Amino acid sequence: MPATFTRGKATLNSLHRALASFPDRDRLPNVEFVLTTEDYSSGEGPIWSYSKREENTNVWLMPDFGYWSWPEVGVGPYKDARRRIAAIDDGEVTVDGQVIPGMQFQDKKKQLVWRGNVATNPQVRGKLLKAAQGRSWASILAIDWGDENDIRFNLLPIEEHCRYMFLAHTEGRSFSGRGKYLLNCRSVVISHKLVWREAHHAALISSGPEANYVEVERDFSDLDHKIEFLIDNPEAAERIANNSVKTFRDRYLTPAAESCYWRHLIRQYASSSEFEPVLYTTREDGKKEPRGIPFETWVLGS
Same domain for 114 and 196? Predict the structure, then answer.
């Protein structure tokens, strides 16, 4: 089954959840739209997509498929990934009542961690590997998704990233689906300058007391300097990590915020549309029939 098909099912399930959980559904306008489950859209017409460049004014950003589930890479449902991440940072209570404390920020591994496929963006990801080569602060490994042994020994579950103090974020073919998971950690996300935008990127702050991530050049030429600064200034690093939790894990990347975004997207898209969608068509015999298939029916048969 193509990955884009599971993406489509995940995206439509998320949209349906946002609509079904809204008590005043009649207050939302009707919309007719086109979405893509590819990494980005190359068309010229109005379209909903997971990512866009600044100049793609025809593209409307929607939450990506991972907010429902990402089975292909073993992340699983988003709510479960958040639970596993929070268990590392905040602790948890086991079924037998044992209290497992969370990991203090200053006890995390003082390294920058990254696992991924270089081939999806060799210009950026290859330069990350080069900048980190031989550095004591680096835990950077390329993963060959076609090599079972490589995956078995080197793949790092998404929640285990949170045991590191610094998390590298890199773009792939366009956006990178792991970004929102990293921002759920109480760690410092370090990203090169981004050219692909996602729905939550407006909340990213790279400087000042409210900074919630660290930005470096696209060639990572200043990575070593910034990592050394953060290691030498642990209070500053912890403040950035705490800001990330406050901004993303506890606010903009919650399932509730995702549903809110979907509804806002519908309102804004409807306000720019120049027609009212028609739900039924009239056949030659005069009978009406719905255009398309109800979601509840489609999801059972797909």
Answer: yes
Place of tokens 């098909």: 5
C-beta pairs of 229-235 under 8 Å, 24+ apart in sequence:
230/165, 230/166, 230/188, 231/110, 231/137, 234/105, 234/106
Question: Do residues 143 and 213 share a domain?
Answer: yes
- pLDDT value for 3: 63
Q: Note whether 32 and 138 are same-domain residues.
A: no
Contacts of 119 (CB under 8 A, 6+ apart): none
pTM (2 decimals)? 0.93
Could you read off the pLDDT of 252-278 as tens digits, one per residue?
999 999 999 999 999 999 999 999 999
Domain coverage including residue 33: 3-70+255-301
**CATH code assigned at 166:** 3.40.50.2000
For the chain, counts of helices (H) and of strands (E): 9, 13
